[in-house]
Amino acid sequence: MAFFFKTCDNWTAMYFSTDSTVFLDGNWIHASEANVTLYSQTLHYGFGVFDGMRSYKNADGCNIFKAREHFARLSDSCRQLGIQLSYTPEELVEIAYQLLTKNHLYTAYIRPLVFLGPNMELNSESSVHVFMAAWPWKKYLGYEPINIMVSQYQKQGDNHSSINAKIVGNYAPAILATNQARKLGYDEALLLDENGCIAEGPAANFFYEKDDILYTPTTRCALPGITRKTIFDLAAQWDIPVVEKDITVEEAYKADYAFFTGTASEITPIGSINGERMKKSWEDSHAYSLYMMYRQQVMYDEFQGLTIV
Ligand code: PMP
């Protein structure tokens, strides 16, 4: 299958080709025929939810890493917004594997989106639609250590909208923060919470390591990321303590090393924060060893039985 790659004026071509198939409301259709009404409540007010997961090629076919956890989170995001999702996480896992098979994909990114139909009022009495697409997507933010800046844009607190749900409308500040960082010559932004402590990246959790201990913000201000949890599990295997706490920017400046975690960015080394360089090199950090373990782990998990060939 010939996938097109992004040029400055053609983002859509990156996500599907002429023979890509997507899932929409129980049907398998050509990506180019998948449409959404311009009166969609999700389009106007951001009231909808999504998730993102990766599949990795392995000797048996491929594995969607922690697929069930991702669809359980999607389901929970819907529940938090009062959106009736008519598929169980298990059914969605099955659909995701079918999606890969239909598109002859093994190593891919999978994006489920639950969006609402026409309704210009501020109530959620509209039809619920389920969309799922997959495309080959290289590691977001790349492999090299990135330079990040503390953003002026804040992470919304739990009193704005549910922080542990992936709500479409929550991502406007994240886009503003990334835009600002890139404009100022940085690779990515770091968002603070309403108390001025580090929350997370625009779409990734933040960790730093100091004296052989890993520190990460609490889920009061950060999404309980599935990659974040994987780091907890991998660190436990190596007896590396992980502490969840409020983290100031000054504290992070003194880190031995720092990194982002997320499905799209996997584990991304952070070389500097606001120009303050990390004390260790990426290769000497625990984060590097954890990343090597992560790369092995993603190829198989408890859903081996559902791998495609
Ligand atoms: N924070 C935010 C705001 C995100 O959108 C993501 C990506 N889902 C993450 C953290 C990382 O979560 P995960 O590891 O589950 O992809």
List the bound ligands.
4'-deoxy-4'-aminopyridoxal-5'-phosphate
Mean pLDDT: 92
The CATH superfamily of the largest domain appears as D-amino Acid Aminotransferase, subunit A, domain 2
What is the CATH first-level class name of the largest domain? Alpha Beta
Rg from alpha-carbon coordinates: 19 Å
The total number of structural domains is 2
CATH architect. name of the largest domain: Alpha-Beta Barrel
Secondary-structure content class: alpha+beta
Tell me which oligomeric state these chains represent: single chain
Spell out the helices and strands N to C.
Answer: HEEHEEEHHEEEHEEEEHEHEEEH
The third-level CATH topology of the largest domain is D-amino Acid Aminotransferase, Chain A, domain 2
Summed up, the helix count is 8
- In terms of DSSP E residues, the strand content is 25-35%
End-to-end gap? 17 Å
Percent helix, as a range, is 25-40%
Detailed description of the structure:
Strands 8, 9, 10, 11, 12, 13, 14, 15 and 16 form a nine-stranded mixed sheet that branches. Strands 1, 2, 3, 4, 5, 6 and 7 form a seven-stranded antiparallel sheet that branches. The protein is 26% helix and 27% strand. It is α+β, with helices and mostly antiparallel strands. The model is unreliable at 1-9 and 303-309 (pLDDT under 50). The chain folds into two domains: 2-135, D-amino Acid Aminotransferase, Chain A, domain 1 (2-Layer Sandwich); 146-297, D-amino Acid Aminotransferase, subunit A, domain 2 (D-amino Acid Aminotransferase, Chain A, domain 2). It has eight helices and 16 strands. Helix 3 (67-81) crosses helix 4 (89-102). Bound molecules: 4'-deoxy-4'-aminopyridoxal-5'-phosphate.
